[in-house]
Amino acid sequence: MRVLITGGTGFIGRRLALTLLERGRLADGSGNARPVDAVTLFDVTAPAVPLPADPRLSLRTGDIGDPATVKALFGNDVGCVYHLAAVVSAGAEQDFDLGIRVNLEGTRNVLEASRALGTAPTVVLASSVAVYGGDMPKVIGDDFHTTPTTSYGIQKAASELLVNDYSRKGFVDGRALRLPTVVVRPGKPNKAASTWASSIIREPLNGEEAVCPVPPEQEMWLLSARKAVDAFVRAAELPAEAWGKNRTVALPGITRTVRQMVKALGNVAGKAATARIRWQPDPFVQRIIDGWPTRFAPKRGLALGFTADDRFEDVIQAFIEDELGGRFVA
Amino acid sequence: MRVLITGGTGFIGRRLALTLLERGRLADGSGNARPVDAVTLFDVTAPAVPLPADPRLSLRTGDIGDPATVKALFGNDVGCVYHLAAVVSAGAEQDFDLGIRVNLEGTRNVLEASRALGTAPTVVLASSVAVYGGDMPKVIGDDFHTTPTTSYGIQKAASELLVNDYSRKGFVDGRALRLPTVVVRPGKPNKAASTWASSIIREPLNGEEAVCPVPPEQEMWLLSARKAVDAFVRAAELPAEAWGKNRTVALPGITRTVRQMVKALGNVAGKAATARIRWQPDPFVQRIIDGWPTRFAPKRGLALGFTADDRFEDVIQAFIEDELGGRFVA
């Protein structure tokens, strides 16, 4: 079967694609292991870093907000769709209409094209803890309501609802993952309000200065890239019965202050690395971040077998291995 | 100013219109009392019962799912929009695409047309306790998550999210009411899965047989038509600060079993009336109803000054006064 990954040239999409090609198989929601014969990455532009030369891997570019473009991606061989394409948090906040088009209409287009296949393919949505917001308890439980205070969060929450209903109707076999902030991302900062959470680790390891727009006591709910990719594979393979009526799950993560993150960086790479962080408060970023919860009791996620990281040092070490070829600037 | 009521020829829309015309004023979210100079009812067809002859009252018909049609309804004088147009629960379950078009795209069209005015008009959305579903506690609190198990519920939950975000962005001054099942509706049964809750009162009072598709022990969360109209007026007039970040509220209601409802009918109209109810289980209706919660702790709604009914006999008596001209068949 073919796996389609929207937003596929992004960091997670790319790693997920390589993981699936390496595995060579992916179970569906009925427990049938299916060969992964092809992986199509769809994104708005071609990747900055060329894709590996694998005849099973292909790239398509276009606008996820255009129904015909999305429909044209879906051949009858598509068995699983990972829908990662999104305008990220600060981006959707700055351009409301673009956020609606990509994050809400994009999801609808993916669900409609999946439905049109008539085979109820697996659809895994990348959602986010940004679906929470407003007045929150100190620890968020699985049945706490979603009253997001960002457009990105609203669009993801609405997308989750649609994934649930398309699944209930039997149009798709959907699953939605509420991802913590994924660290450490390679490459350049993006428009996510959380982009600094990667920058403050990545740039110092590259011998560059990083700007941290939030104070050391800021807490974040975090997940490593490795665990995120594992979660996307697991999400597709879990039997439909395991999900029941609710196809959304908040993934387990770890809560760390920025201070703890920086300390871990020091433990891995030394004080010269941490000295490359410049602390410069940004009220726009802070206002978005303030709306995000940082502590969870993700019982359902744990019961479904998703796992969090242990030590933050290990998260940094994994980044060095996976993305920096094992080298960093001390 | 003009008040626009979508779904305006329905039972609640009509009564709301007449109430607003009688009041002659409606405050906005800043506390300014504004004269109601005109009320436009928009609906898919003209009403079966002619509208009263009031020069301030006008009717427009069309498709709420068509953006241009909706935009054309919005003159610069529109200060408040009541968005009641919807494909009801069983209807949206039977025709998924129609439900999406009317209940989700319709809300988007109303919000976009309101936003285009540039005056941030008041928008009051009729939502529903159908936004709840799945695994639920015995009593639903205000911060319980919405995992609906009907397309109608999903579409309403997504609409609430959009009302919240359009309000947060300052595009509209939105409010969304999670209505209990409103009883007693006049006229004929509709496609709502709860339509029998009115039928079992209305038809016997008219000397006609009613079919009850659920057993006597079935509980329902109920609100009278009078209280519902009061709530729509109050929702528009509450200051924006009172709502805070969350523009959605679950309205207070009362929990009654069908047995209690029928007993109240007997108390008001006698045993001959209750004998006109025929008990005939309907699995399709039961399956939808089973997904609805029946007990709530609506603290926020009460704090915002919304009120529930007291005796169910009074609800029936009010229906007899308001809709039957004080007469019924004993």
Describe this structure in words.
2 copies of one chain form a homodimer. The first copy, chain A, has 330 residues and is α/β, with parallel strands linked by helices. Chain A folds into 2 domains: 2-180 and 223-250, NAD(P)-binding Rossmann-like Domain (Rossmann fold, 3-Layer(aba) Sandwich); 183-220 and 254-292 and 311-323, UDP-galactose 4-epimerase, domain 1. Chain A contains 13 helices and 14 strands. In chain A, strands 5-4-1-6-7-8-12 form a 7-stranded parallel beta sheet, with helices on both faces. In chain A, strands 9-11-13 form a 3-stranded mixed beta sheet. A two-stranded antiparallel ribbon of chain A has the order 2-3. In chain A, helix 9 (258-269) crosses helix 13 (312-323). The longest helix of chain A is centred in the N-terminal third of the chain and has 22 residues, at 96-117. The model of chain A has no long low-confidence stretch (mean pLDDT 96). The A-B interface holds A 96, 133-135, 142-149, 151, 154, 157-158, 161-162, 164-165, 168-169, 244-246, 248 and B 96, 133-135, 142-149, 151, 154, 157-158, 161-162, 164-165, 168-169, 244-246, 248.
